[in-house]
Structures are given as C-alpha cells and as structure tokens.
C-alpha cells in the first residue's frame, strides 16, 4: 500500500543553508565581532611566555592603569566613529579640562567639586563647539576637530602660562587606589565602559548613532534630527575626554599643559582595533575597551622586554595599520 508521507529531502533547496553552513556563518560572525579579544588573549599568552613578571597581579593592575586614559578617550571616540565622524581634539580637551579644574581651585578659590564640574563643562563645551561646526557649519569632522585641537591646546597654554598647575585632592583621588590595591583609574574606565555600552545599546541616541553612521541621508529621512544628534555625539566625546583629563591629572598629581599630546591617535587606534569601522555604522564599547587593553599590553610587554620606546612606536604603528587593513578586508568580503 503506497504511503502518503512526503519524500525525505536529503539536500537543501537552492539558496537554503545547511546546518554546517549556518554554523560556519555564526562562527565567522563571532570571530569578526571578537577578533580583538582573541588578539588580546594571544598577546597575553605570548607576553606571559616571554616574561614571568607579566601575569603578576601588580603588573596586570599596571596594565589596567596604563590603559585607562586611552580607553576613556576611545570610548568617547567610539560614538563619533560609529556615526561616521572623527575627533582629533580629544587629547587637547583632556589637557584643557585638567588646567581649568586646577586653576579654578588655585586662582579662583572655588571648592574642588565645583571646579571639577567646571572642568567637565569645559570638555562638554569643546565637544559642542565641534558639533556645531560639523552639524550646522557643514565643516568636515576632520577640519572642525583639528581646529578644536589647536584651540584647546592653545587655551591650555594661555591659561597655564606653559607651566604645570597643581591639582586639589579631589582630582588626585582619580589617580589613587582603593584599599591600597584597586586602582581608581580602572574603576572609572569600567564604569564609563558600561555607560557607553548602555548609551549605544539601550537609548534612542545610540540607535541614532548607528543609523547616522550607516546612512546619514536615510537616517534623516526616517525622522532622526541628525544635527541635534551630532551635537549630542560630539558633546559626549568632549565629556568623556574631560573625564580622561581628570584621571590623567590625578595620576600626574598636576595639570600638564602638554599632557595627552598625540593621545587622539591611540584613541582612534583602540576603537579600530576593537572592531569599529572608520566608514561608520559599526562598533561596540566592549570592543573599544579590548582595543585599549591590546595597546596597553603591547606597551607593557615591550617595556618588560626592555625594548626601546622608539621601536615601540614602530610596533604600535604596525598594529594600527593591520587593524585598518583588517577593517578594509572585512568590508570587501561583505
């Protein structure tokens, strides 16, 4: 008696993926999203083999402290790069924040907490000025933030007279340790990482950032106020830079007029190493933190191996080039 059951199909229909193909795609996607984490683990293993000191608790905490300032700058840069922009002013804004905070206490006599708020306001204002130039002045982000780099650094030198500015205890706390072993810079880095992840994943602004970076015109047509969101994006970058400036001033116990010079390049590198695309529309806060740790591990490991600081710059440059090349190849495959 013939059976009414449909025949068992042993091969997929045209265009249908097999289980193996779906698994391969998932693994490839996971590797693409977590490539920086894999690189960090490989680097850590290599450094542990080359230097027995690397995995000591004290050294690992040092790596976190060394990564903190760049990571905080890079988290602010993440908002900008995902939106398809760039911010070259983050290092100068960090230095300006430290100088403003110190002078508000030393010269004006304000309470330290109020001085810190004014320092953060200086960072926010710097970011908003860049945002206005970009969103409403139609300047390219590169030019607007390059101008802000020069303005912020110039104001830093004018206000300080080119000499270091002492910081109150409320600022030096940012460079201290809790209970004698837990570095405050690491705690600030983690807290801002969680805040950046929340903004990107759980807020309207976060969705707008990805939309603008993916296709600005489509974002505008979908009802997003692109100009307003760009103000928020660059304001966030300026505020994160201000926090980084406080952490750096706390570590140095003073505001240095030339502090954080060139840090903007390391911040951009950390974002790209963390998996963000310079074309916009792609990136994660977690990836940025991992990217900053990759740079810190490389520098720390090379220091432990007594490699010249000149060669360290060569290595960091090569890592940046490889990260950008990887991003380019990934976009071609997609």
Please give a structural write-up:
The protein is mainly α. It has helices at residues 19-33, 35-50, 57-82, 90-106, 112-135, 141-160, 169-172, 184-202, 204-214, 216-221, 226-252, 263-273, 285-304, 309-333, and strands spanning 165-166, 177-178, 182-183, 254-255.
Chain-wise SSE layout:
Blueprint: H1 19-33, H2 35-50, H3 57-82, H4 90-106, H5 112-135, H6 141-160, E1 165-166, H7 169-172, E2 177-178, E3 182-183, H8 184-202, H9 204-214, H10 216-221, H11 226-252, E4 254-255, H12 263-273, H13 285-304, H14 309-333
Antiparallel strand pairs: 1-4, 2-3
Helix pairs in contact: 2-13, 3-8, 3-9, 3-11, 3-12, 3-13, 4-5, 4-6, 4-11, 5-6, 5-11, 8-9, 9-11, 12-13, 12-14, 13-14
Record keyword descriptors for this entry.
globular; 2% strand; two-stranded antiparallel ribbon; mainly alpha; 4 strands; 334 residues
What is this entry, summarized?
The protein is mainly α.
């Amino acid at each position: 008696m013939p059976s009414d059951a449909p025949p068992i199909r042993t091969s997929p229909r045209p265009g249908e993926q097999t289980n193996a193909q779906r698994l391969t795609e998932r693994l490839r996607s996971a590797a693409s999203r977590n490539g920086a984490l894999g690189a960090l683990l490989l680097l850590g293993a290599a450094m542990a083999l080359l230097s027995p000191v690397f995995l000591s608790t004290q050294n690992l905490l040092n790596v976190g402290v060394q990564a903190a300032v760049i990571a905080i700058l890079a988290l602010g840069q993440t908002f900008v790069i995902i939106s398809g922009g760039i911010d070259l002013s983050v290092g100068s804004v960090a230095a300006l924040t430290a100088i403003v905070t110190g002078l508000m206490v030393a010269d004006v006599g304000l309470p330290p907490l109020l001085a810190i708020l004014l320092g953060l306001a200086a960072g926010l204002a710097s970011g908003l000025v860049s945002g206005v130039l970009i969103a409403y002045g139609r300047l390219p982000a590169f030019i607007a933030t390059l101008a802000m780099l020069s303005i912020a650094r110039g104001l830093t030198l004018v206000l300080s007279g080119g000499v270091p500015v002492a910081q109150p205890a409320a600022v030096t706390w940012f460079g201290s340790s809790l209970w004698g072993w837990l570095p405050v810079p690491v705690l600030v880095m983690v807290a801002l990482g969680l805040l950046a992840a929340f903004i990107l994943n759980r807020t309207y602004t976060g969705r707008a950032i990805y939309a603008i970076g993916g296709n600005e015109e489509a974002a505008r047509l979908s009802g997003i106020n692109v100009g307003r969101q760009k103000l928020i994006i660059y304001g966030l970058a300026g505020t994160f830079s201000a926090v980084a400036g406080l952490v750096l001033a706390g570590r140095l116990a003073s505001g240095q007029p030339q502090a954080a010079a060139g840090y903007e390049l390391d911040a951009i590198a950390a974002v790209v190493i963390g998996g963000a695309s310079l074309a916009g529309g792609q990136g994660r806060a977690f990836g940025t933190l991992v990217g900053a740790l990759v740079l810190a591990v490389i520098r720390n490991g090379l220091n432990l191996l007594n490699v010249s600081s000149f060669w360290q710059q060569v290595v960091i440059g090569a890592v940046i080039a490889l990260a950008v090349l990887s991003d380019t190849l990934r976009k071609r495959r997609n």
